[in-house]
Specification:
The chain is α/β, with parallel strands linked by helices. It has twelve helices and nine strands.
Length: 316
Amino acid sequence: MKFLKLVVVFSTLFSALTVLAQKPMRFMAVTIDDLPVVSTRKDLKNRQEITRKLLAHVTKAKVPAIGFVNENKLYAGEKRDEAQIDLLRSWLDSNLELGNHTFSHVNIANVPLEKYKDEILKGEIITKELLQAKGKRPRYFRHPFLWTGLSLKTKSDLGEFLSAHNYTIAPVTIDNSDWIFARAYDNAFDKGDQKLMKQIGAAYVPYMEAKMDYWERQSVKIFNREIKQILLIHANFINSDYFDDLARMMKKRNYKFVSLEEALRDEAYQLPDNFVRRNGISWLHRWALDKGRENILPDEPKTPDFVLKAAGVESE
Ligand SMILES: [Zn+2]
């Protein structure tokens, strides 16, 4: 009897210690760009299929994701295309949030600021209407290509415009080249090359995991801790097939999925974005550059050559 009690005490102690030894929780907001779909598969049936599969994965993994919309994809010529708009309705029916990614995915460096502002207003009309029907409104803005402006003046003008229209900027920390994998995957599909599709898919999740490891370390380098991260991926074909595996990988790394709102409560995001170069980079690198170039970790994982080749992309 005494022995049994001892066993119970020890096993309780052991499980308490195991809990203590577990890795600390990490936090990830998942943001998905270029809605409703970005793919060479432009016909409605394929777009519906991509949306259905992506949303099934997102819902199953209980990810409170936000999708950023390009409303130019919701028109056929001048007319609204209700079948495309229905794709967005399914995002809202899955209890996900929608944000603004400009009407036609313009780069802030290529148009006058006034035109860029018009693109933001033109890009919210249908999304606003859909959100209103649910008692909500668009709250977040994501810059196409993550290009945020070539001068601090442009950035602060845009910042004022965005707050006047109740928008918060959606930064990205876990930046990656999912779009190159997506292009390669689309190309392989268009060529009917199933074997290449499988190879690209098999390389995709380990690549994303290596990127996460990199950005986790980059966060520690700047903040001495892992901040609540914000992942950028796209509403594309490869994610409609592999988001399941991505989510599993993130859970294994002890990530808890949180909303963008929750992630932005991390005080890291109070730091300014002073980056004005001709590029779109992770906010972790923007903050690292502010502290001095030596704070940028050198070993950022690269897209494998065979994926670049299959995508027809020269370099990242
Ligand atoms: Zn985009």
